[in-house]
Amino acid sequence: MNKQEAHKRIQNLKELINKHRYEYHVLNTQTISDEALDSLKHELSLLEQSYPEFVTPDSPTQRVAGKALDDFAKVTHKRRMISLNDIFNFEELSDWEARNKKIVDAQYEYVVELKIDGFAISLIYRDGVLVTAATRGDGLVGEDVTQNVKTIESIPLTLREKISGEVEVRGEIFMSKKAFDAINKQQAQLGEKLYANPRNLAAGTIRQLDPALAASRKLDFFAYELFIDDKSMPKIVEHERLRELGFKTSSHTKLVSDIAGVQRMYDAWSDKREKQDFLIDGLVIKINDPKVRDTLGIVGKAPRGMCAYKFPAQQVTTVVKGVDWSVGRTGVLTPVATFEPVSVAGTTVQHATIHNMDEIRRLDVRIGDTVIIEKAGDIIPKIVTVLAQMRTGKEKVITAPSHCPVCGSVVQQAKGEVAIRCSNNSCFASEVSRLIHFVSKKAFDIEGLGEKVVEQLAVNGLIASPADLYKLTIDDFLTLEGFKEKSATNAFNAIQAKK
Ligand code: IVH
After folding, report:
1. How far apart are CA 160 and CA 223, in angstroms?
2. Among 187, 194, 234, 408, which one has the highest count of C-beta atoms within 10 angstroms of its own C-beta?
């Protein structure tokens, strides 16, 4: 991407993100997933890092959230409610540490907490009594939702210690998966619309005007920040103090000595998180030492001394680079989209089958389009939707080929059928047998790559010629049925060994 293209893409990303943020925060509607929106924001922040000259004050990376609704009284926050920068892998974690160590070259520990996927709230206690609960809003001004928040039993209405003056506590309001399922079950029985996820339902419950309704929906709360007299304290002490004052804090919070420890905790939670009865979308890493955190300070909307280490998204955005047509055993030609490689649910994805021309037309997907992709059933990647607002005018419409890409024979379409086929009956069969011969003992002797696997690779459009074998990645094998990390690595190594 050249500078001009990057500029255009930054502009498109900003407009699209702002549109979705407005819909979400102001209109209370949502047309793309949080994860897809995060993916767009992440791309924007990476592009802005490469081209800082294109960062504008109105960029979504420069602020925290949307406008307040008109229905609630406004509350000006005593301290801005800032947010956290996201990281997604160990490399980004190491980079974060290296950047910080350049500023403060000291030995320090980290407090690692679960990142609860809920709704941030600021609670103000005056002389030990809860007086105001406010949403984040745009970080400076939020909404007064005190009445609704008072219905949440895990939030103390008075502190367990009488502290004179003002104390501020921040944390996350959330709904357990169990409570969410019960509400949706009820909705289904009443023939009403189902709610999308516990996080949106929790947010929607707090931002509606009927406290009785809020009370009926079992909301919960975890506290994670405490401000008394603006004296910063070690994060682990803050955690203990919150408990002493009567707040529910997560029992999974840990003090770890280095980023290797952070990574171990991340790996463990990547496996365990589904079993938890509330949504967690990552870990929050906080430098324990308050002096170090204060020296590092805040850049833009986020503190340097903390970050959000997010779990891999199930939905991400990427760009369609091209479409290849793979020829199946029965001669049917299937379009396979090639993407800019992206990580979805922990593996890198660069291809997705699109069923047929009808599906291409339904999605209106074009080469060059920005798309949302996900792993259906967590295994097979597919295009969910096209973000048409991201178009530059250079996208190319996808048309069906007139000739078979494998053998060059004319392509036919039977009456009443959507599928297009190669007219040469022996086309695919001969192609696959050529490939099978290539890997066999008589030829390149690629151990462990049997007929079935070669066939699967060809059927999925991952190989059309022997040379394609050497372009395969471990992730390509993982898209095939029956492959796990170990078998995929073995197959990949077997091919590389015969390069
Ligand atoms: S500390 C500067 N700790 O995640 C903000 N936040 O993506 C410091 N969140 O705005 C926040 N769990 O709404 C913190 N254990 C946790 C959290 C947590 C969830 C939310 C919070 C924050 C957002 C950042």
Report:
1. 15
2. 234
